[in-house]
Design goal:
Number of strands of chain B: 2
Structural class of chain B: mainly alpha
Number of domains of chain A: 1
Radius of gyration of chain A: 22 Å
Order of helices and strands of chain B: HHEEHHHHHHHHHHHHHHHHHH
Strand content of chain B: under 5%
Distance between the termini of chain A: 37 Å
Strand order of the largest sheet of chain A: 1-2
Largest interface: A-B, 34 and 37 residues
Oligomer: heterodimer
Helix content of chain B: over 70%
Structural class of chain A: mainly alpha
Largest sheet of chain B: 2 strands, antiparallel
Number of helices of chain B: 20
Helix content of chain A: over 70%
Strand order of the largest sheet of chain B: 1-2
Chain lengths: ~500, ~475
């Protein structure tokens, strides 16, 4: 007989809350009248994410000594809880954005069909976040793979949900195929690791590698390499990044905003845990591997972004380069690096979400994809969104307008602390290159000649009666992202304290 | 008002005012008045600080400290030394004049404009008072953001290319400095400049110096300067050459020289050679320059070279002269750029072949340009002369040939400045100089006359600054003790 594990339900509270919200939202797709579905779905999803934040904060406060629960399948510790807080916050902000901007401008003008699949979208969003919340705490290779598929499948559908939008279906399909490739690599890697060590549990893998002297076991190393590659796909780190620009460009912008922020949190947080917990003996290998991936991401992301005109593609490449920065922290393989990574994620998610939200506003105004050309004059037409975008992109560039500056400083410090001065140099050179395209966005918004400023809005704005839509929720979400981004420059001490306590639950 | 709050107030009052201006839908007139008022309040606060500053005492004064992030030893520490007090004064005075100029000419989009100018004020003051390396870096970078927008939005026709060049150049330097800061700070275990241990690492020294020589700038790192100074709005150019360029020189004085004594002496000859080359090359370019702003821009380049010569001579006289010259040149170049703006507004050009004969019927313009120009060329008795003389005397103590090269710069200064004065004011009347090109209006006089008056005061009493920049008037001792 299979023994029933003892289940710590509180450790799963975040996930259960999100799943509950998702179930209710899905029921709404059937039971609630068509015209009320958007509001219903948004409220349920918003409440679900709020509940998820509360649960995760509570979990953080109540789990000072991390340990594995449910037969070692899940970690109840602060590293998990803090990542869950970030993911749920992004989810809540996405709900705000999606209420007004999902589906995007593709079907936006056709009011009658606009709400067709909105309830499903609001059911998928929390279920996806639940998958990520489980993923970051996964304690063995099976739960890792299951939760990876769980949130990935939800994301595939979300990418394609605006099926009238040119590129949305393509994005979903592309993400499905490339993502499955990554998942398959991860699964195969897990199988090889199991084959080598006879265990799927992280801690047992580590102890068996130690006791059985498997340091140089080829199966184990190959498995590790495949796991790294699989996680690299999800984190959109080069050379596993090729899906990123197309998917980010094609997906409805609220979904892109969610992906660029939350998926990255999940993938990087989990990568730090699985490598440090399961493969500490191989750290001399994976630190170098991740340093290499970080350099490749910085190079590819920044150089490719230089020649883009489409703003979503620029931001997609910028997210690749930020994967590179965060992997610098990861590659240090120290508690300092983990702390730096966790801190970096806080302003990064705010800036990534906020910048895509602003793109969504402009898309709706224009009724077409946003490029550097039709961004002209945006800063003067919509002062708040313009200034916010200004803060986000210059924060990305590491100028001291937000916590991105401190995050960069921390990961560079972590690299130096590890003894890699060369990686510090690579980081600053990459930042210098990135300035060109980040400033290009500011230039497009504010500095184009007067004649170019009068871009006739052709989208919903004119349909609805000329003036820009009010978009109160979008403004609220952007304001919150701005507050987090700027606030994390000033409130470094409390945030780094949170990150430090979270990192303390990993076995360094 | 307690003693300690003023330094922070000097930084945060303009930044908070900028936020107020951005948030409140004020009219053009109200926005401009508020901004000018804030800049005058800044000047008032600074004067109040001067009256309370103890010039005989060594160490940091008016200091405040709070933890920013303790695990790496980064703190928010601000405070002033004698020389930083003078540079803060230069900043607030030049910013007040420049804000006034922006108000006078009625810049478009006033809320954005005045907000950015105030933000720039706060960030620049921050550079001069920050006593933590990372805080210094944050302000050093923060200056760039408003400057980028100010030049890119309100600049001349070639502004887009100029901004890219300006930002990429300066960021290239400051990012290397960031790498150096990370390495230095983690080695030292603290980022606090007041308790900074000295370092013998030549690489770190070069990392810092790279940022400073680009910002100052010194030859051959001045590639951004001509375009930026030409394409910026005149009042922004005044701030750039008068104040922002001084942050690079200040960085050498406050960070590079005291923290890296061994590398400083190792690279002394190289830096002195660069400084001398900058002085001569800048002067020659100024002499060849076909327009008003070009002359003043390249003369600023030459002045940076001269000041660096003083700083790296490593002598008492050199340090004293460098601080005096920073202030004097800041004021003189700000005045000249504001006058250049006034001339360009009247004639829509700064090119000498289209200008000329403006002295006739325009006594105020002629007097002010003449006075500022003569001070700029360091005529004996002027503040610049005092500064340059001290620098050259200091350089002479290092080796006589540095002083010879430096003195040649003074001769060249006379050549290009007199050429400027005669090309604008005298000679035949230029084709763009019409009768409708009026003399300076009271509003413009109210901006330039105070700057020139301060210069005249300094000319009468240069020791007011040169004797009060370092504790006990012992600069090398203060530098060796790292200003503790």
């Amino acid at each position: 007989m299979i023994p029933t594990p003892n289940i710590d339900w509180f450790a799963l509270a975040t996930i259960l809350t999100l799943l509950g919200a998702s179930a209710i939202a899905l029921l709404g797709a059937v039971l609630v009248p068509h015209r009320a579905r958007r509001l219903f779905g948004a409220v349920v999803s918003g409440l679900g994410f709020t509940g998820g934040i509360v649960a995760a904060v509570w979990l953080y406060a109540d789990s000072p000594h991390g340990h594995a629960v449910v037969s070692g399948a899940f970690y109840r510790d602060r590293w998990t809880a803090l990542a869950q807080v970030i993911i749920c916050t992004v989810g809540l902000a996405t709900t705000f954005l999606a209420f007004e901007h999902l589906p995007g401008w593709g079907r936006g003008a056709d009011r009658s069909r606009r709400d067709d699949h909105i309830a499903e979208a609001f059911a998928l969003l929390p279920v996806c976040a639940a998958g990520m919340a489980f993923f970051v705490g996964a304690g063995n290779l099976i739960t890792l793979f299951l939760s990876l598929e769980w949130f990935s499948i939800a994301l595939y559908v979300l990418c394609a949900i605006d099926y009238d939008l040119e590129g949305s279906l393509e994005a979903g399909l592309k993400y499905l195929i490339v993502g499955s490739f990554g998942s398959a690599g991860l699964l195969f890697g897990s199988a090889l690791v199991y084959g080598a060590t006879g265990s799927i549990n992280y801690q047992e893998i580590a102890s068996r590698v130690g006791t059985q002297g498997l340091d140089h076991n080829l199966l184990l190393l190959l498995g590790l390499a495949l796991i790294i590659a699989g996680l690299g796909f999800k984190a959109s780190a080069a050379p596993f990044h090729m899906w990123t620009p197309d998917v980010y460009e094609g997906a409805p912008t609220p979904v892109t905003a969610f992906m660029s922020a939350a998926t990255k949190v999940a993938a990087l947080v989990l990568a730090m845990r699985v490598l440090q917990t399961a493969f500490p003996q191989e750290s001399h290998l994976w630190t170098w591997a991740f340093a290499g991936i970080a350099v490749a991401s910085l190079a590819v992301g920044n150089l490719a972004a230089l020649v883009q005109r489409n703003v979503k593609r620029i931001l997609a490449y910028s997210s690749i380069s930020h994967s590179g920065f965060m992997l610098i922290g990861l590659s240090a393989g120290t508690a300092f690096g983990a702390k730096a990574l966790m801190f970096y994620l806080i302003p990064y998610t705010a800036m990534a979400f906020g910048s895509f939200a602003i793109v969504a506003a402009r898309e709706r105004e224009l009724g077409e994809p946003v490029t550097l050309d039709n961004l002209a004059g945006f800063g003067w037409e919509r002062p708040f969104l313009g200034v916010a975008m200004w803060f986000f992109v210059l924060g990305f560039a590491g100028l001291p307008l937000g916590g991105g500056f401190v995050g960069k400083f921390y990961v560079l410090a972590a690299a130096y602390d590890h003894g890699w001065t060369w990686l510090v140099i690579v980081g600053v050179v990459a930042t210098l290159v990135s300035l060109y395209y980040y400033l290009g966005i500011v230039r497009a918004m504010y500095m184009r000649p007067g004649a170019e400023l009068e871009v006739a809005p052709g989208g919903v704005a004119t349909v609805a009666g000329g003036s820009p839509p009010r978009e109160a929720l979008l403004h609220a979400a952007v304001a919150a992202a701005l507050a987090v981004s700027v606030g994390s420059l000033f409130a470094v001490e409390p945030l780094i304290d949170l990150a430090q306590k979270a990192a303390a639950s990993l076995p360094f | 008002m307690t003693i300690s709050s003023v330094t922070s107030l000097l930084i945060w009052l303009p930044i908070a005012s900028a936020l107020v201006i951005w948030l409140l839908p004020l009219s053009r007139y109200a926005t401009g008045s508020l901004a000018v008022l804030v800049s005058l309040v800044e000047v008032g606060f600074w004067i109040e600080q001067v009256t309370r500053f103890d010039f005989g005492q060594s160490g940091l004064q008016f200091s405040e400290s709070a933890t920013w992030f303790g695990d790496l030893g980064v703190s928010y520490t601000v405070g002033e030394y004698g020389f930083s007090l003078w540079l803060v004064g230069l900043t607030v005075v030049v910013m007040a004049a420049s804000l006034g100029y922006g108000f006078w000419v009625g810049r478009d989009r006033p809320r954005a404009y005045f907000g950015l100018m105030l933000f720039l004020t706060g960030a620049t003051v921050g550079v001069f008072v920050a006593q933590d390396l990372l805080l210094f870096y944050a302000f050093f970078e923060a200056m760039l953001i408003p400057l980028y927008i100010l030049i890119g939005v309100w600049g001349g026709p070639g502004r887009l290319g100029a901004t890219v060049k300006f930002v990429i150049y300066t960021m290239a330097g400051s990012l290397l400095m960031l790498a150096a800061i990370v390495v230095y700070g983690l080695q030292a275990g603290t980022f606090d400049l007041v308790d900074a241990p000295t370092s013998t690492s030549r690489w770190l020294f070069l990392g810092f110096m790279f940022a400073f020589v680009i910002k100052a700038p010194l030859f051959p790192f001045h590639g951004w300067l001509p375009d930026t100074y030409r394409e910026s709005p005149p009042e922004v150019t005044a701030v750039l050459s008068g104040v922002v360029a001084k942050t690079g020189l200040y960085g050498m004085l406050r960070i590079a020289i005291p923290t890296f004594p061994e590398p400083t002496s190792y690279y002394r000859t190289a830096v002195l050679a660069l400084a001398a080359a900058t002085l001569v090359y800048g002067s020659l370019l100024a002499f060849r320059s076909p327009d008003f702003r070009g002359v003043v821009a390249y003369s600023s380049l030459a002045a940076s070279g001269l000041i660096a010569l003083g700083l790296f001579s490593g002598t008492d006289l050199g340090f004293d002269g460098a601080v005096l010259q920073m202030v004097a040149h800041g004021l003189v170049s700000a005045s000249l750029f504001l006058i250049a703006g006034a001339v360009e507004r009247r004639t829509s050009t700064g090119e000498f072949r289209l200008l000329g004969g403006m002295a006739r019927g325009r006594p105020a313009l002629a007097t002010l340009l003449m006075t500022a120009g003569v001070i700029s060329l360091a005529v004996p008795g002027s503040a610049s002369f005092a500064g340059e003389f001290l620098i050259l005397a200091g350089a002479f103590q290092r080796a006589w040939w540095w002083a010879v090269i430096g003195a040649s710069g003074i001769v060249l200064a006379a050549m290009y400045m007199l050429r400027l004065i005669s090309a604008v004011l005298h000679e035949a009347r230029g084709s763009t100089v019409g009768d409708e090109a009026l003399d300076l209006r009271p509003g413009e006089l109210a901006l330039v006359v105070p700057l020139v008056c301060v210069l005249l005061v300094l000319s009468v009493w240069p020791a007011g600054i040169s004797g009060r920049s370092f504790a006990g008037d012992n600069p090398t001792g203060a530098v060796e003790a790292q200003f503790r």
